[in-house]
From TrEMBL, chains A, B:
It comes from Stigmatella erecta. SUPFAM superfamilies: GroES-like, NAD(P)-binding Rossmann-fold domains. Gene3D superfamilies: Medium-chain alcohol dehydrogenases, catalytic domain, NAD(P)-binding Rossmann-like Domain. PANTHER family: PROSTAGLANDIN REDUCTASE, PROSTAGLANDIN REDUCTASE 1. It comes from the Bacteria. This is Enoyl reductase (ER) domain-containing protein.
Length: 341, 341
């Protein structure tokens, strides 16, 4: 590294009010420092945009600290080691870890995991083999506890998490119904991902669509959406049903609190359990080996499909993120920053 | 039984719209039949009025069938056997079972349980040793899973269920806070039942009262009330908190659905579990021996107090029930119908 290395990064220019716009982001060029002892310099190949990032753009304390104005954004990446000062990492190794929204990142090697490019595509480590995949696996199996023959409904089913939830539920012998925001996505769920039924929630009230697609009720509802979907699902839950509260993308851009489900007290008469979770919690980490074995195996055996929407170029990352919140993706939304060498 | 036996009963005259009134009830005298083989004739000594009965007065399918207009109401009683045609039951035995809202009831003996008048008072089998007691025991211990040192908040704490929830939580080493609807009840919780803190929810917003009484947050919220209490509690729950959904007395007289908690999606960031239950479910019955052993033991050792509000006379039962929904009781509300012979 004789030559000084320059790299671009996306900074948070201002906090979005409601829906984010291009003006909330800024492309900045900086000089990349050399790695210190124990650190690696990573060239980012793919970066992730995820719905949870919207929450971090607000100045609110939550389970992850807020992004800072004037500082680079962050998130998951798959990259390639350019320079290593850490034992066990070699130039050319593929890794996944933090440091998204920029072209290069220097960080302690222990924040990274080496990834095997032979299991799926490299970007799969941001999707089915990454955080969204683990979210679907842990949320559905450990919290939703679906049994063969039960009906599983998943909202945001054409997204990175929802698509895998549905596919795993099918593998477990469930009847699977999904909602999505366009006719093409509904077709994708039915024809590509093997859902038993699916509907476009923009076509009419969710409660009516559930009446039609889950006439005998829902055993497990995997909620990525909140709002109307949650209320309508509570209304169709069977006794002893489980609701996995994973996200509420319908409300992430909200500027005022939305009314909660008016029928929540049905949870008493129907003995429902509603459970929120954060997949990065320590308590879920013991499931990582099972997750990689199962989902990795299903991928190799083509029992699970890896679906992604790829946007090219760091400068397009804000657009990709804004599009994600509008549902412009099918499957995992990733931004391709560079090609492996 | 040479002489024809007459007995009075309260019938549902009409379904209440909103708050029930005296006009919804009718006192009727009927002839009591002799018991057939396997049946017993019971003279009711105490009958129970319970919040769940309000739901059964609506013409809505739920976990128990609705009461029928023109028919007697029903509910738990403690009574004494007048005439037995069933093995194992003798004249003079004390029993608990169904057939409330009337002076006498004839029914199959297998619907009844013999009760021991030596453990607590006879009416305790409608309260701490009966359905409300079992509700508190199972809901708090099996669903709320309180750990020593944790903060437990219970709403409707001066009621039959809430009062026992708080006392059991204290026995388990928790810090216990309760809400109730009058200054006297708050005093009762603090001075009689040993709550660490309590507040009158009519004095101001529940969220402010929780800020003051649970400054470090809530680990277990036992919800008897719903509405504002539930939303405010969600706002003060700690990470991994458990919310036991037992009832929603604030909404039982509602004529339109009330808005749900606007902050339910905090359940994701805080990893909350909300769980509804019905104590009469088969799955909870295996806990009955533990419940009777533990709560019976605590009663005998005076570690738990039996608190009740007694109204005298069958004709006063509607008034007792209407008063219950308005919070006129402290502890279990019972109606005394007769004295043991």
């Amino acid at each position: 590294m004789a030559k000084e290395l320059k790299g671009r990064a996306i900074h948070l220019k201002s906090r979005p009010q409601g829906e984010p716009t291009a003006a909330n982001f800024e492309l900045v060029e900086t000089t990349i420092p050399e790695p210190a002892e124990g650190q690696i310099l990573v060239c980012n190949l793919f970066m992730s945009v995820d719905p949870y990032m919207r929450g971090r753009m607000n100045d609110v304390k939550s389970y992850v600290p807020p992004f800072q104005v004037g500082q680079p954004l962050d998130g998951g990446v798959v990259g390639q080691v350019v320079h290593s000062k850490a034992l066990g990492f070699e130039e050319g190794d593929f890794v996944s870890g933090p440091g998204g929204w920029r072209e290069y990142h220097v960080a302690p090697a222990n924040q990274y995991m080496k990834v095997d490019p032979g299991v799926g595509s490299l970007s799969a480590y941001l999707g089915v083999l990454g955080m969204p995949g683990m979210t679907a696996y842990v949320g559905l199996l450990d919290l939703g506890k679906p049994q063969a023959g039960e009906t599983v409904f998943v909202s945001g089913a054409a997204g990175a998490v929802g698509g895998l939830v549905g596919q795993i539920a099918k593998l477990k012998g469930c009847r699977v119904v999904g909602s999505a925001g366009s006719a093409e996505k509904v077709k994708h769920l039915r024809e590509e991902l093997g859902f038993d039924d699916a509907f476009n929630y923009k076509d009419g009230p969710v409660a009516q669509a559930l009446e039609r697609t889950c006439p005998e009720g829902i055993d497990v509802y995997f909620d990525n959406v909140g709002g109307e979907h949650l209320e309508a699902s509570i209304g169709k839950m069977k006794n002893y049903g489980r609701i996995v509260l994973c996200g509420a993308i319908s409300q992430y851009n909200a500027t005022a609190p939305a009314p909660g489900p008016r029928n929540l007290m049905l949870a008493v008469a129907r003995r429902l359990t509603l459970q929120g979770f954060i997949v990065s919690d320590e308590r879920h980490q013991e499931r990582r080996p099972d997750f990689l074995r199962d989902v990795g195996g299903w991928l190799r055996e083509k029992k699970v499909k890896e679906v992604e929407t790829v946007v090219e170029g760091l400068d397009k990352a804000p657009e990709a993120f804004i599009g994600l919140l509008r549902g412009h993706n099918t499957g995992k939304m990733v931004v391709k920053l560079a090609s492996p060498v």
